[in-house]
Amino acid sequence: MKNYMDLTGKIALITGASSGIGAATAVVFADLGAKVAIGYHGNQAGAQKVREEIEKAGGKAIAIRADVRKSAEIHTLIETVTKQLGPIDVLVNNAGSLVERQRILEVTEERWNDIVALNLTSAVLCSQAVAGSMIERKSGAIINVVSIAGRNGGGPGAGAYATAKGGLITFTKSLAKELAPHGVRVNAVSPGVIATPFHEVFSTPEMIRTFVAGIPMGRTGTSPECATAIAFLASNAASYISGETIEVNGGQLML
C-alpha cells in the first residue's frame, strides 16, 4: 500500500524541536522516513532526548543549538545541517513563545521587540536562509507554526505574541506567492489549545478550563495531532496546497 505522506530521503529542519509540537514533529517526520535536524536554543536535554528517541526507532537525527533571532547563528545552523545531512528539503519554523503576558500599559519596547523577533522575524530569516537552495533545486516545503492567537488576538496579555503570529500568517501567504513559481510550497499550521509545556507555563488551570469550554470537541489537542498536520503539508499529499493555514483547534475557531 502506498504511503502518500512518505518523506523518505527528505532532509527536514525543525526549529524549536526540543519539546512540545516541535519535538512531536521531529518524531513523526523521522517515522515517515525523513532525516531530521532538531533545532533548539536552551533545552539541550530535551533535544538530545528527541534525537535518542528517533535513533532508537532506527531513524537519523541530529540536534543543533542556535538562537534563531540572530541571522549569523541561523546561517551556521543551515550550514551544519547541509554538511551533516544534505540540502534542506523541508523547513518547519516552529520556534516561538509567548515569553511573558503583559498588557498594553505594562509591555516595554524591548519586550515587544523580543517577542516579535522570536515569533516572526526568526521565521523570515530562516526561510530566507533556505530559499536560495530550494529555488535552485525547484523543490521544497516551508511550514510555519502560527497560532489561533494570530486569528483572535490571543488571551490576556498576549498582544505582542498574537500580533507576531498574525504577521506570520500574512508572511506565509506572501512567501507562498513568491516561491510557488519555483516549485517551493509555503503553508502554515495554526494550533489552538494544545497540551504542551507552553500552556503549563503561561496558562492557569482555570484558563485551560475556560478555553476547553469553548472547544466543540471538548478537550485540548495533542502535539502529535499538530505534527501530523505539519507532515501532511510537507508531503506530496499536499502538492497543490500553498499559502494556506490549517487550523488545528478542535473546532474552537472555524474560518
Q: What does it look like?
A:
The protein has helices spanning 20-31, 44-56, 71-84, 109-137, 149-152, 159-179, 197-202, 205-213, 223-234, and strands spanning 11-14, 35-40, 61-65, 90-93, 140-145, 184-191, 245-248. It starts with 10 loop residues before the first strand and ends in a 7-residue tail after the last strand. It is built from 9 helices and 7 strands. A 7-stranded parallel β-sheet has the order 3-2-1-4-5-6-7, with helices on both faces. It has 255 residues and is α/β, with parallel strands linked by helices. It is globular. Strand 4 (90-93), helix 4 and strand 5 form a beta-alpha-beta unit.
CATH evolutionary superfamily: NAD(P)-binding Rossmann-like Domain
Summarize the helix and strand pattern as letters: EHEHEHEHEHHEHHHE
Output mean pLDDT. 96
Strand content: 5-15%
Q: CATH first level: which class?
A: Alpha Beta
- The helix-and-strand class reads alpha/beta
Q: Which sequence of strands runs across the widest sheet?
A: 3-2-1-4-5-6-7
How many strand units? 7
Which radius of gyration do the C-alpha atoms yield?
17 Å
Q: What number of structural domains do the residues give?
A: 1
User: End-to-end span in angstroms?
Assistant: 34 Å
Shape: globular
